[in-house]
Amino acid sequence: MTQPLSIAVIDYEGGNLASAARAAVRASELSGLAAAVVVTNEPSEVRRADRIILPGQGAFAACAQGLEATPGLKDAIAGAVAGGTPFLGICVGMQLMAERGLEHGVTEGFGWIRGEIAPMDAPGLRLPQMGWNELTLTQPEHPLVRGLGPAPHGYFVHSYALHGTESETLLATTDYGGAVPAIVCRGNAAGTQFHVEKSQTVGLKILANFLAWEPEEQL
Q: Nearest-5° angle of CA 129, CA 63, CA 127?
């Protein structure tokens, strides 16, 4: 009998954990994949997991400090991802993949993707960007974004965004005073600036794609 996928949703007091965990369970049901979802801050569970999901909301610095507050947690995530475990960051969880964040000072990220998290430049538009916005797929054949249908939308809540990344890292952008990175991926590490757990059918499809994803490359 095939063992269910072990999915670790990281608990560091920095994200909408219950919603992210429920969405992962629902995505596994919709895709027909057996999955065991656990909300955890235990480094040993993170190292054993088949998939890692890092939610995040609030400020980059506070979320980074939350990861550091549990001994061994950040190192366990970094080690597992370096070893090939697929990773999905959500909102600030995606931002933490970058080299640094500039919110409330300069704070180091994981450094998995090039660029920094800086204030959005959206003249004449309200910040934070809050609500539904259309995704423009820049690599529509990537396994993580297949099957999203025409004009997919995600639910965004943010006033800081990724700046200075490489084009090959981008799977999707959204338009808010210009192109804003919406989905990024490098190797086995991916992230969404929008909240997949609040993005209904599109969010669940991305999560289902993530659970089925077998990356061809790793960090």
A: 15
Cis omega (within 30 of 0) for bond into 128: yes
DSSP 180: E
Is the pLDDT score of 1 beyond 90? no
Please identify which of the residues 104, 153, 197, 217 carries the catalytic annotation. 197
Q: Is the distance from CB of 183 to CB of 143 less than 8 angstroms?
A: no
pLDDT, tens digit, 9 for 90 and up, residues 29-84:
988 999 999 999 999 999 999 999 999 888 999 999 999 999 999 999 999 999 99
Task: Give the C-alpha distances (Å, rounded to integers) separating 95 from 5, 161, 215.
Answer: 25, 7, 20
Judge whether 195 counts as a catalytic residue. Answer: yes
User: Beta 116-119 vs 107-108: how paired, if at all?
Assistant: unpaired
pTM (whole model) above 0.90? yes
Q: Which residue among 116, 153, 185, 195 is the active-site one?
A: 195
pLDDT at 19: 93
Q: Where are the beta strands (DSSP E) in the chain?
A: 5-10, 35-40, 51-54, 87-90, 100-101, 107-108, 116-119, 129-137, 153-158, 160-163, 170-175, 179-186, 189-192
For residues 77 and 73, what is the distance between their CA atoms, to the nearest angstrom?
Answer: 6
- Among residues 91, 116, 153, 185, which one is catalytic? 91
35 and 2 Cβ atoms separated by less than 8 Å: no
Q: Are strands 107-108 and 129-137 parallel, antiparallel or unpaired?
A: unpaired
Is 197 tagged catalytic? Answer: yes
Tell me if 206 sits within 8 A of 94, measured CB to CB: no
